[in-house]
Amino acid sequence: YPPCSSCTKIFLCFYVIERQLDAEELLLYYLRKKHILFLNFTFEFYNSVNYFHLSGTKYGCGVGGCGACTVMISAYDPVAKQIQHRPANSCLFPICSLHGAAVTTVEGVGSIKPRIHPIQERLAKCSGSQCGFCTPGMEPTCCQLRATGQCCLDEEERVCSSSTGGQVTIWSFILTLVKTTKSLSFPPQRMAQEQQRTTLIFHGKRTTWISPPSLKEHVDLKAKYPKAPLVVGNTRLKKNHHGAYHPIILHPVRIPEMHVVSSTNDVIGAACCLAQLRDILMEAVPKLAEEKTKIYRALLQHLRTLAGEQIRSMASLEGHIVIRGSTWDLNPILSVGKSVLNLASEDKQILLNDQFLAGSEHADLKAKEVIVSVLIPYSMKKNALSIVNPGMRILFSPGTDTIVDLSILYGGIGSTILSARKSCEKLIGRQWNDQILLHEACRLVLEEIFLPPSALGGKVEYRRTLLVSFLFRFYLEVLHGLNQMYPFRCAELSQEKMSALGMLQSGVAQGVQIYQLRCDVDPGDRSPQDPVGHPIMHQSGIKYTTGEAVYIDDIHPVGGELSLAVVTSIKAHAEIISIDAPEALQVPGVVDVVTARDVPGENGKDEQAYAEDKVVCVGQIICAVVAESLTQAKCGAEKVKIAYEDLEPILTIEANINFLTVNLKPSLDFPMIIYLTGELHMGGQEHFYLETNSVLVIPRVEDKEMDMYVSTQHATDVQEFVASALNVQYNKIMCHMKHVGGAFGGKITKPSLFAVIAAVAANKTRRPVRFALERNMDMEKTANASVAILQVGLMNDGRIRAADFQCYINGGCTKDESGSVIEYLVFKVDNAYNILNLRVTGHACKTNLPSNTAFQGFELPQAGLFGESCIVAVATQTGLPHEKVREINMYKGVKLTSFKEEFDAENLWKCWEECLDKSDYYSRKAMVEEFNTKNYWKKKGIAIIPMKFSVGFNTTYFHQVTSSKQFHIYIDGSVLVTHGGIELGQGIPPKMSQLSYCELKIPLSYIHLCETSTTTVPSDKYTTGSIGTEINARAVQDACQILWKHLDPIQRDNPNIYLLQISEAHKQSISLSATGYFKGYVTNMNWDTQKGHAFPYFLFGVACSEVEIDCLTGAHKSIRTDIVMDACFTINPAIDIGQIEGAFIQGVGLYTLEEIFFSPEGEQLTLGPDTYKIPAICDIPEQFCVYLLPNSCNLIAIYSSKVNTPNLPFASTPDAVAAARKKRGLPLDFTPNSPLTVERIRMACNDVFTEMVRLFLSLL
């Protein structure tokens, strides 16, 4: 549409006509790769387009848990007669459900041409994106908030909504794509066509999708196909691993009766999504009397945190109810609220009660019955009350506290919602204010709601404790309500009991970032125009926010390209008897099956690329299937049969230690006043970068050359592995990296194996091969779990005289990086503390779990936790404040580390004092103590933690930039820079541009950094250890200085005229190209003498964090965090502060949230965001302040900068738990194993309810 007089919007709008629709296809894959036909409705002609390929929408997890695939769906609501804009996970959204809808991807929000959206511009300029992979998924959600439909086209839409449109046949499919340059709207023609009430039928290869327009037809279809699932949002309908599918799917979303909303009789249409339910309730609550809205308020309380907005916008109320999953949190509330299901058949109704939720035959839906709407009644009595998950409701006799009716339901305890019906019946007629009622109610519930020790999901003791903890909170809520109504009859709750009321709510996070500009310190040294030290926008920032940055799986399909799927082991340890592939080769589209026999050269090194005779973990790759499409490759992989002969697996550190019969007892031989011993366990952590490991291999026609496009931190390693596997020289393998969507250490060693797998397949077929891991497979490669057994000797004044650590890590089935991990764990155990007599012994344990690898921080988080545990133990033993014990033991002045490396701790103390001041630590600590004195059931904790991070590696050649860092100036003045650093989100390109300006005074707009490639920079080491930017900057600086010497005579004659200088240099045949080199920092470590200069320098930092915990549930929230980092004069403070913030939040996940589980057979159970909890927005501190230490310099690193990405230990949560234990008179020397999850927090806050559960379990 051309812009009107009052609007600047320009629309590029297409009908998308799909005549060969697959009813099982999901929107994400359709957008990224699909062949389509466009119909431009303005000119009414067909235009063939090879690929849709809207690659800004990313695959992140495949289960709707990460948001990288978010799009905005706009559809006309015939009941409300307006356009509804909702965010949705395209990885779950069936393409068939989009008839008559508009889909806005990030490309529709804005692009470099013609213009970017203000949201995108703001994100880029404020460095709101790091690696950039998931950023495009944020923007459709943001724009959905802006899409209020108040544009000039609204009148046009209202006029057109009553007209009729063209014919839509059964075999055609229409999808409207809206591309706008500013706000978002909806094509009016779509509403006209929506009036056509034709039954939509889409026939796929295996599945038929039927969307009826009327309730009668829907009922008839359900009677005809009683086993057909009803799909509205598709948030739960998933194919299982055995290839099951649904031949018929019914899609009732176009039926008006199922979208009805009636405020007069409290009816909500069954097809309404949960986001609509929330909006309806939020609108209703202020208009109704308070006593009528208790059920509504309880629903709203949980709708705020139930899944993400994308899932809430897709999941229907009917689906939420009918699935009856134990963890679906609204059902207990709807049940105790006496909700009613209205059916289509003969106006029948079903009470949504405990029997319905349990699936009782007499109370359940019949196969042919259809839910049309749900009645959610008002709360009818003033003393009725509902509490969120479980759902509890009580009704008293008027004017009394005598129980007339009581309902208690629990979700998340068993496989279905469980009701304590018998317990409730026994309590009817009792007085609520009876002193012994609570104890008896808890006993009855524990007896009735049985959870066996082997219950699915584990955490049995914790879940049983929650049964009575929630009941206690409900009991107090009701008593408090009775006191409000009848103060003369029910006494006011004590302050102790009042602290149990309410749930923790996180506020909107606010941040402060303070840093010092270089020109502010020495104006004569640097000009204000010098970009070094300024928050310059990332060169790819705009491309990140518009989705135009190209990652590996975004690369357009290559001619003849094959897709690859792998067959993996289902055994932890077994001999391979046979690989049976003939059936797979019969699958249409399958080209070949690749095994270890097809590897011309070396089949991996430490770890085999293709398993040969034996598998050593679940998930190990045995063979690969290549096919014309990914679907065909997966289908072929399912047909491959593997025969095994089981071997005995070793799965845990403890089993490994017992197997090796290692003596674990540490000993100290120094005279001390006090000895402390302990054992600390720390879980592993998933890297969970959003871009999964991906590789595209393109074999060239001649000379056995191959182009490898791979998501990796170590291109040289990929080149070496592939060349060895194909038995060719390294110079035949060319690796290319432009953008990597996150890594955190997880893409150092593993991408080489995946590259070999794809390269061998490409070599065998002589066709390009693409291999992108799905999230569940990618998550099998994690950071190491650890165990530390320690003994500490100390004096009464808190000084630690000696410490002995024996550390064990679970290395998995191969060595990988475990040797280096153990070394760095040994190096870093002391953290910031000067322990004169320190002994650390490290062991890497081989087990039959997937091989573990390095992680960001490279063992500082683990070593730091071990060291901080000693500090806490010493403080507890001596009764001294924790911060005083830290100060007593911190390094001071110029000291030697345990491995005899000298360093100056001056900046460590500057960070400490600055953090004490900026965080107002002592005042806040007093406030925390006062809060803890007044509150029994909620506690706060505050801790301030120092950090000494060893930068780089203990081997010199790991720092070297081994070959050319090329700097080319062209005759138009433009500059091309190539280097070996790989951009992972740490900002290498803008920093290289900044230092290029600083060295040569070349305008930033003239500088371009091309991809990293082994063709231009061979034999580089990996980009990791937080030092990749620094060492590559040294090489680029060297190249700049060479060019400066070349241009110096010209510059003297033509000062300040850059283009004239370049032109004159070219005329005088002066070289405008240079190659830079950096030998690397000289480091060494002699393990025989246990001495060395292991690291170039140390980075210091201090963090102060305050948290609050709910002792009844274990829930916790972060109130405030202050970080002071000795980053000296950072090259780009905006990027580096983002790295600091991100690393801290990653530490929050490590220490409090992220937990990896394995089955007894060695199968990893946490393989996606639906089973593995990573930090979310609600886990960000409400106040998050980052300060870069002012007036600090580093004489070693370039431009006096320092690296700054390690995550600091997170110790305030154990402090809050200790406050709870102190109040209860419990010992304070408990072991806070990591992660300190809600379960561990709750069980550590031992009280009458935990003891009640333990006693009950002992009697079973």
Automatic annotation (TrEMBL):
This is FAD-binding PCMH-type domain-containing protein. Substrate binds at residue 858. Residues 202-381 form the FAD-binding PCMH-type domain. It comes from the Eukaryota. [2Fe-2S] cluster 1 binds at residues 61, 66, 69, 91. Its cofactor is [2Fe-2S] cluster; Mo-molybdopterin; FAD. Mo-molybdopterin binds at residues 713, 744, 1025. Keywords: 2Fe-2S, FAD, Flavoprotein, Iron, Iron-sulfur, Metal-binding, Molybdenum, Oxidoreductase. FAD binds at residues 230-237, 329. It holds the Pfam family MoCoBD_1. Binds 1 Mo-molybdopterin (Mo-MPT) cofactor per subunit. Belongs to the xanthine dehydrogenase family. GO terms for molecular function: 2 iron, 2 sulfur cluster binding; FAD binding; iron ion binding; oxidoreductase activity. [2Fe-2S] cluster 2 binds at residues 131, 134. The keyword NAD does not apply. SMART domains: Ald_Xan_dh_C, CO_deh_flav_C. It comes from Aquila chrysaetos chrysaetos.
